[in-house]
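Figure S7 source data.
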Amino acid sequence: LLPKAAPERCESHAAAQPEIVHLPERTTDLGSGFVVRRSLPTRGRRLVGPWCFFDLYGPLEFAKRKAMDVAPHPHIGLQTVSWLFAGEAIHHDSLGCTATARPGELNLMTAGRGIAHSEETPPQNSGRLHGVQLWVALPDAERHREPGFDHYTDLPVLEPGGGRAQVFMGNLGDARSGTRAFSPMVGADVHVGGHGVLRLPLETSWEHALVVIEGEVMLDGVRLTPGGLHYLGTGRAGLELSAERPAHALLIGGAPFDTAIVMWWNFVARTAEEIQLARENWQQRRVFGEVTAYQGTRLEAPPLEGRPVARR
Ligand code: MN
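Tokens for the predicted manganese (II) ion complex:
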């Protein structure tokens, strides 16, 4: 058994053909009772294209308490993709950027060599929260780039009949999100209408996965339900989705990632030494900067134990 805090080496193990493999989720408390359901990384699968992290939270309804309150913490080597189905989350970072994510609007933070941010429920809120936090691993040539933050309000929708898909990262067929991306990928919010078949074009060489948020979706005669991730393999020119009642899912995918990554805490790197340096930089208040807009104390890095070990 590895120590819980050991860095984890993650390799792409893209299937060579279409398949449907269900991978269960696990729940994690991010603090103050904010519970997320994590589908990536998981036992048996660490990456789907460049996607290396998939947290789903809610639906929550709340009155007085602050549903989300993730204090300032650092990131390297990745992009954070904050996408909501209901409610609001306000982002502050060490570049001084502030933006509120809402349904249909994307908060996209490119960590590159290092950035710190907080994410929380804003004081003015709807009392609801439902959404995902996803991470995209940056390729070697881009992972040391200057950090940046982007907020997008105008994202394309594909409506071929039988439902709709809104593309928030990369492209789905000819529908291009136009959002900042550094490797071939797709991230799309999919509503299957409950009548007819929703046909979505895919890149044949990419691997894909579907996470059902609500309802049940039929694919290749298989009923896909909420809870965990359905890995779809490669070699698909498209998806034919149907549902007896309106259903909601997220589609992620991309070209199989060609480099093994090392993940630990909020860092994506290539070696244990890089992880150790990033941790020290955060603890010593170097490189990442301060999130001055956040009212409260920042998160401290957990202790670092062990060495990265390849697991499949
Ligand atoms: Mn974060």
